[in-house]
Amino acid sequence: MGFCLQAFVALVLVQASCGQHDYPPPHHPHYVPPPPPPPHHIPPPHPEPYPQPCPPQPCPPPHVEPHPHPYPRPHPVPHVEPHPHPYPQPHPEPYPQPCSPPHPYPHPPIHPPPYVPQHPHPVPPPPPPPVYHGIFPQHFSFGVSSGAHDHEGAWLQDGAGEGIYDHWVHNNPHLIIDGSNADVSADSYNHLEEDVEILNNLTVRHYVFSLSWARIIPNGCGEVNKAAIKHYQRQIQLLRENQIEPIVVLYNRDLPQALEDQGGFLSDQFPKWFIEYANVAFECFGGSVQYWITFADPFVQCYNGYGEGTLPPGVGDNPGVNEYICGHHLLKAHADVYHLYDDSYRHIQKGKLSMALSTPWFEPATDCQTDIEAAETRLQFHIGWFAHPIYVGDYPKVMIQRISQLSELQGLCESRLPVFTRKEIEWIKDTHDFFALTYIVSYHVSAVSDESCLSPSFTSDAGSEIVRIEGDDTWGIRKVVVWIKKQYLNPSIFIVNNGFDSRDRTLQDYDRIDYIKNILIHIYDAMTKDDVRIYGYTHYSYIDGFIRTFGYTIKFGLYDVEFDCPARTRTARLSADYYRHVCNYGCIDDPCPPRHHHEYFGEHVVY
Q: Mind listing the GO molecular function terms for this protein (predicted)?
């Protein structure tokens, strides 16, 4: 019994220690009842609603320290740095805001890039589209030119007389750069059929050439050389048979020496001599010639031949006087021959006649008003000297005034410029059927003071200094023809002489091709943009020849001539091929633009 009581007490103590009963049971003598529980507490209402629970947030990925090395694997895999995920791609435009209009379509179209084939070598970019410079109208005439003394040779052959050029060169060989002469030159006199064949191969429409006065009338007046007449008749006949229009120059610096011995252009008998010579030419050749030119380059003949004396006949003892006398007689002779043709031959032969005037373009050196006026004065002294009496009447006013004022300052009783009578002015005026033009080069002009003009000379009278413009000066031809249009009421212009000189005999004459192309571009622009009436262009020359004081050191020809060879072999240059293309198709560019209808001056030209 005692043992059982002890076991019970021990069990109670164990339960008490385990927290099952905090107090002794009620029947225990030391039983104390537990305290009553506190009253049930209800929390007062919260002054604000309970905050809503936050939406569940995605758990951030656990932070894992990168392992310094990849875990060893049975088959090692190269360690690759992680790359950003390729999508989503950024939207090409900002997402529309709530107030902005919706995008026109939910997703912009995606165009795959064009396929570009891969080449083993870099491919250059395609060339730019060609730029075409225009096509001349079908009525525009392309041709070439030559000079009797420059190319004929055959000195004294078939009874020819001596001209002033031959006489001057033979007596002054030191004045020619290479000491040569024109006794044989290109020998075109004895290569007539071959040269006409060259013209035919070039497909030119016209050919400008000069007659040799000393060959036709050896003494200048009197007996006519029948062999020379037969030769030129044969030449004109061959040109006609090949559909090439002959344009005949009566005089091109080849006065018979017999007439020069009597005073030449300084003699008041010169107009009478020239009428006799022209009458022979009209009578013998006029039936096959529709275009005549009385004088080529009258400025060069009078200024260089009788003023400076640097060219035949080399008369330079009275500058500032002789050149004006020469020009005065030359204008009278031109008018007399024009009226001779008008009265006796025009109604039968139906031809046209004019004088070929050569001129550079004079560009003011600065924008200063004095230089601008000096450039205009130069033009009047150069081309206006001969054009103004023919197209307007009398010499230009600035020329009359300046020479008169300077003559007075120089102590002279009268002007050094001869005076036309009223009857002579009317006789010379309007003696032209077209404007024959030779373009040379361009110059910069600077004004000089009258104090530096006290010694009589043409340069002092013009009142300016000129310096040739270096480089490309082909733009000058456009300014020249526009100036002529404004001065002389837009006459019909025929360019009878223009060429490019080179000291190189090369057959690959790309510079000459560029020159011809640029000249034609400016002529075309003058026709289409400035409304200048131009209906023909002539390139000087089709073959090389003897050139003034340069001899054979410079080349003008589309064909090279072997002057060291007795046969004077002709060989075409590249420029001959290009000019043949121009003459054939009338287009500046080679190749021509694609063939289609071209509108030009209101006409549709079909090629």
A: beta-glucosidase activity
Say how far residue 463 (Cα) sits from the centre of its chain.
Answer: 31
Find where tokens 């360019």 sit: 495
DSSP characters over 40-64: PP-PPPPSSPPPPPPPPPPPPPPP-
Cα separation, 454 vs 446, in Å, equals 18
Computed on alpha carbons and rounded to an integer, the radius of gyration of the chain in Å comes to 50
Residues sharing a CB contact under 8 Å with residue 588, sequence separation 6 or more, in sequence order: 132, 133, 134, 135, 136, 517, 520, 521, 524, 582
- Tell me the two tokens of residue 186: 């290109």
Task: Determine whether 3 is exposed, middle or buried from the number of CB atoms within 10 Å of its CB (0-12, 13-18, 19+).
Answer: exposed
Q: Do 182 and 153 contact (CB within 8 A), yes or no?
A: yes
CA–CA gap between residue 324 and residue 461 (Å, rounded): 11
Cis peptide preceding 26, ω within 30 of 0:
no
pTM, entire model? 0.78
Pick the range with the lowest mean pLDDT from 77-91, 188-202, 438-452, 493-507. 77-91
Do β-strands 435-447 and 464-468 pair in parallel, antiparallel, or remain unpaired? antiparallel
Indicate the pLDDT class of residue 423, thresholds 50, 70 and 90.
very high
Q: How far is CA 222 from the centre of its chain?
A: 49
pLDDT digit string, tens, across residues 177-235: 999 999 999 999 999 999 999 999 999 999 999 999 999 999 999 999 999 999 999 99
Write the pLDDT tens digit of every residue in 325-337. 999 999 999 999 9
Write out pLDDT tens, residues 569-589.
999 999 999 999 999 999 999
- What tokens were used for 281? 């030419």
pLDDT > 60? residue 341: yes
Say which residues have a Cβ less than 8 Å from residue 552's Cβ, sequence separation at least 6.
178, 180, 544, 546, 563
Task: For 88-149, give the DSSP string.
Answer: SPPPSSPPPPTTSPPPSSSS----PPPP----SSPPPPPPPPP----B--TT-EEEEE--II
| pLDDT over 50 (residue 69) | no
CB atoms within 10 A of CB 604: 8
Q: Is the pLDDT of residue 285 over 60?
A: yes
pLDDT at 75: 44
Distance (Å, rounded) from C-alpha 380 to C-alpha 374? 10
Write the single-letter amino acid at 179: G
Q: What is the DSSP string of 451-492?
A: GGG-S--HHHHHTEEEEEPPS--TTHHHHHHHHHHHHTTS--
Structure tokens at 81: 């740095």
Beta bridge partners of 249: 210, 293
- Nearest to residue 266, comparing CAs of 239, 305, 233, 227? 305
